[in-house]
């Protein structure tokens, strides 16, 4: 552990890591339930909404 690191910094990293794992798990769940076509349509719609 670095001398300047705090417990709050480590907590933030853990929260970020858990969030990323949850998002990847949700993506895998959608893929398994709805198949690739519906999953890619949802991703494309989300990207199109951004632009």
Spell out the blueprint of helices and strands.
Elements: H1 7-50
Q: How would you spell out the order of helices and strands? A: H
Low-confidence stretches: none
How does the major sheet shape up? none
Which class best fits the helix and strand makeup? mainly alpha
Number of strands: 0
Number of helices: 1
Tally of distinct domains = 1
The first-to-last residue Cα distance is 42 Å
Mean pLDDT: 84
What is the gyration radius calculated from CA atoms? 17 Å
* Strand fraction: under 5%
Keywords: Membrane, Transmembrane, Transmembrane helix
Transmembrane segments: 12-32
Walk me through the structure.
By secondary structure, this protein is an all-alpha fold. The protein has one domain (9-51). Helix content is 86%, strand content 0%. The protein has 1 helix and no strands. The longest helix has 44 residues, at 7-50. The radius of gyration is 17 Å and the shape is elongated. It starts with 6 loop residues before the first helix and ends with a helix. The mean pLDDT is 84. The chain crosses the membrane at residues 12-32. Keywords: Membrane, Transmembrane, Transmembrane helix.
């Amino acid at each position: 552990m670095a001398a300047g690191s705090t417990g709050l910094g480590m907590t933030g990293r853990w929260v970020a890591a858990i969030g990323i794992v949850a998002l990847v798990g949700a993506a895998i769940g959608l893929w398994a339930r709805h198949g690739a076509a519906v999953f890619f349509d949802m991703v494309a719609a989300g990207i199109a909404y951004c632009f």
